[in-house]
Amino acid sequence: MLSERRQRVLRALIEDYIEYALPVGSRTLTERHRLGVSPATVRNDLSALEDAGFIQQPHTSAGRVPTDAGYRTFVDELLSSGLAEEERPHPAMMDELRGAACELDALMERTSAALARLTDCLSIVMAPSVFAGRIRQITLVSLSVWQAIIIVVADDGQVANRTVTFSEEVTSDELAAAQNLLNRLLVGQSARDVRRSLDASTIEALRDPLVQLIIDEVVECLGVSDGNRAHSLGISSLLRQPEFSDAKALLPVMEVLEDDEVLLHTFDDTVEGGSPVMVRIGRENPASELAGISIVACPYGRGDSEGVVAVIGPTRMNYGNAIRAVRAAQSVLCDD
Amino acid sequence: MLSERRQRVLRALIEDYIEYALPVGSRTLTERHRLGVSPATVRNDLSALEDAGFIQQPHTSAGRVPTDAGYRTFVDELLSSGLAEEERPHPAMMDELRGAACELDALMERTSAALARLTDCLSIVMAPSVFAGRIRQITLVSLSVWQAIIIVVADDGQVANRTVTFSEEVTSDELAAAQNLLNRLLVGQSARDVRRSLDASTIEALRDPLVQLIIDEVVECLGVSDGNRAHSLGISSLLRQPEFSDAKALLPVMEVLEDDEVLLHTFDDTVEGGSPVMVRIGRENPASELAGISIVACPYGRGDSEGVVAVIGPTRMNYGNAIRAVRAAQSVLCDD
DNA sequence: CGTTAGCACTCTCGCACCTTGGTTGCTAAA
DNA sequence: TTTAGCAACCAAGGTGCGAGAGTGCTAACG
Question: Which end of chain B is more exposed for a tag (fewer CB within 10 A), N or C?
């Protein structure tokens, strides 16, 4: 539908705009790229591209700027061809994180930092929702006769804990008994299993109010979307981008990002779709406040454990770089 | 040294400037406050206050603006008199957090959110450096013959965990033995004790390379300043302040805040000094990038467990409100 | 001596105006 | 279909001017 040359023109324009953040015109385009035609010809192409909705003018007699649709075709082309050929994803990033900590939190933190710096965007690394894996062990630690801590360990090494307060005194023997029972009941099950079996079964042990209480807390533990295990870094990177030189532009974005609810929903559909990496451009975002920004996200982890690693920046972001970086992060986070 | 009236003038000026964020002149001052003198008189006082270094003019023929020194006397006066009389610290905040979660992380999160909203500043709640308390229990969970998780529980309910990789295969019996030994050795000790006794003693058990390895990891666990247990919220609040309407003003601040190292050192001396709440104004901050901002911080937790709750905003912040809010947060976080 | 009124002075801010550089769209020619 | 030339356009940046706000000074007053 789009002639070969016009695709080249669009691509050149987007690359220039990404680099310089200024509207780019026909002459500049012919000077910076070997298009082999004169500015006048390019002008015609630009006009056609504008009619097709891929670019627009901020005002008459300025250069052109890509629209969301323009970025979209650019990215699709990138995803289908550009990245497949160059399979090594972001060597700089891989080098930096080689031999990183085995501690999951620390690794997430470092990955996030590397992402932010290498892409000049805000990066978010969300932990897999606790316990995609199976329960390996449950430990109860008594703090007093009124309080205890529940610690749940998954076989992928994740640990969650929760303080529980009893309505009546509980001896350490009772606690130990409950611990044994719980381990017998729940070890080897996934979070989903636990909830399902609890709904269905009427295990006699559940009559015990203590066990009942603790199981509720365990379920709570497992289901928590666990906001505190999201690492985000790179607001300063974002501030350096010219589109955010005015605080008013950044404010709506930050409001969304600081609201865990919204943030989580943003990544709901990260996994779906064929491509392993999701790119959401400008108005493609569900929240209208995010009209000016793009998100490159990608799930990680084994099975359906839904960790997400993402990069957030202005629509004028270096998509190629971002996609490679996110993929690199994905692979780093997978084989921890 | 400062006459009664001049103190009143200074105070009035600072209050107005905090409210309107604009340089305030003599006439405005007499109109908005019942000073009982004419603008001309106030002008003389302002001139004197400027000579004394408490206020300054952004440029000739503009109103006056408080200097760091001006804020300092204002705050000192506040701390010595104003707050003592009104002992109820920030009822709105207390109400909001009544019956909050017993989970420490969740409580920190909610406290941070409340602080940010009620003060219109950035808020930071840092967890007590893990294990100011005493070790209550150590649990080892085997993941494979090569890997295990160390979980340390303190008697104040904090939990820390760490994955450790062995250089050779370890059976679950060996692990259980090590766990027993560790509990016998370390339960009841504080982090400081552990390190001290390890330096001094030459317990025979430590010859065992496995135990040795695990103890090292435990110490690591205890000492970690634990960056991921800091909750900060309210960047959007900060963005709403006129002093940060330009992103360039916010950039240095964010760079400092995103660097855990610097951030931690910032609160090093929070505890010292007689007053329970630390107020650091503008250039009093160690980092020169923080010249334009103030920090109101306050330690919390029992004993010398060094949790910190703080509020960060422009030097033109509502100190009275911030101090009350931080104190309220302190008391909420104490009796969890 | 402290306080007040009047007045000249200074400086920023906002507005109008102009110039300049870069870009477009159109037309006609190759 | 491509190219060259040309008129028109518009944002950005600089200049000049008037309005407004505030100061500092001086002189008068109690």
Answer: N
